[in-house]
Amino acid sequence: MDLGMLVVAMGIPSAFTGFCFWMLERKLDRRQKAEEGKDAARRRNEVIVIEGVNAAIALGEATARAVQRIPDARCNGDMAAALEYASEVKHKHKDFMTEQGVDALY
Q1: pTM beyond 0.85, yes or no
Q2: Which of 24, 31, 79, 96 would bridge 75 by S-S if both were Cys, CB 3.0 to 4.6 A apart?
Q3: Residue 3 pLDDT
């Protein structure tokens, strides 16, 4: 066996192994990009859910305040307690989100 045959015999398995690693790396890159896309979608979904909760609380507060202003409504203490609770939860949520924002910065 001469030197040329030996180089070819050693090169073929090396090329095949290199090709296999290249294919594996491509597959892993595609999977990572897909996961990054899913993560971005999850983050956007969380933002939308939080905005929806805030909108629901604001709507509930506005409705309760409007009902309280109606002279014939005869609102009991439940309405006032619910309004206070909604306000408390809204402020706790705002404080939590502020804390998370500061933690993300540092």
Answers
A1: no
A2: 79
A3: 72
70-99: per-residue pLDDT in tens?
877 777 778 888 888 988 998 999 899 889
pLDDT, residue 1, reads: 61
Residues 57 and 90: beta-carbon distance below 8 Å: yes
3-state secondary structure the chain: CCHHHHHHHHHHHHHHHHHHHHHHHHHHHHHHHHHHHHHHHHHHHHHHHHHHHHHHHHHHHHHHHHHHHCCCCCCCHHHHHHHHHHHHHHHHHHHHHHHHHHHHHC
| Domain ranges, ordered by start, for the chain | 3-105
With both helix axes pointing from N to C terminus, report the angle between 3-69 and 77-105 in degrees, rounded to the nearest 10: 150
